[in-house]
Amino acid sequence: MAGSLAIRRAGAVIRGGGVIAYPTEAVWGFGCDPLDVEAVARILAIKERSASMGLILIAANMAQLEPWIEPVSQEIQARMAATWPGPVTWVLPARAWVPGWVHGGRGSLAVRVTAHAQSAALCREAGFPIVSTSANRSGRPPARTGIQVRRWFGDELDLILDGATGGRERPSEIRDAISGLPIRVA
Known about the structure:
This protein is an alpha/beta fold. It has helices spanning about 5-15, 35-45, 60-65, 75-80, 100-105, 115-125, 145-155, and strands at about 20-25, 30, 55-60, 90-95, 110-115, 130, 135, 160, 175, 180-185. α1 (about 5-15) crosses α6 (about 115-125).
């Protein structure tokens, strides 16, 4: 895992409007400040992905996500708490102020409290949830190693945070928080 100096540098790059690649629970991801429209646009261009698909935000803890999502019932909170920190992404109603480039114009937001120690440290260092979308071109397999990220995207990124994935075989499960139904099964 990258040391605290590398995490501080990556957090500074994100806060400064940069785009990074970093390891997550199963695959490598692209990350940036979700409120920086230019950084988000760069990630979408790198991925060759439509903004209408929306993005996942990861956080170090629920407190980082609360400003982004509408309050939900205690039952829903308990459902999420049972899987966090962990590899389950929940789709929740977004607060009205959340920009469309984050939620894809859907009004809902995909969020996760990560169990990946390095990713959580990165969110703490940034001071807010960060974009977490797989490091790949749309429709292609995601990068599984830092070497793949460097080979495929090195010149397009501001920083590649060295480290290892959490060893999971598949990306996070995505579930609708209101219904509890799966959207993408891990």
